[in-house]
């Protein structure tokens, strides 16, 4: 069993540049693409014109959600 795991590890280490594993990088890029494809980029200037909506979104994403996840995890 150990020999099989060693061979698998050696196989996947061939697909590495520095400390970056290329198959994982490709997989993460493919997972990120669908949400980015649904963004309506023409509507972005309107969002940046309304500071209240922008600040509410930033507060929710960078303060409220991390704190709530921390509280749920502890």
Automatic annotation (TrEMBL):
- Main location as per UniProt: membrane
List the InterPro entries.
Arsenical-R_Acr3, BilAc:Na_symport/Acr3
One GO location term (cellular component): plasma membrane
Q: Where in the cell is it found?
A: Cell membrane
Q: How does it sit in the membrane?
A: Multi-pass membrane protein
Q: Does the keyword Glycosyltransferase apply?
A: no
Keywords assigned by UniProt, alphabetized: Cell membrane, Membrane, Transmembrane, Transmembrane helix, Transport
Spans traversing the lipid bilayer: 15-33
Extract the signal peptide range: none
Show the GO MF annotations: antimonite transmembrane transporter activity; antiporter activity; arsenite transmembrane transporter activity
Q: What is this protein called?
A: Uncharacterized protein
Q: What is the species listed in this Swiss-Prot or TrEMBL entry?
A: Biomaibacter acetigenes
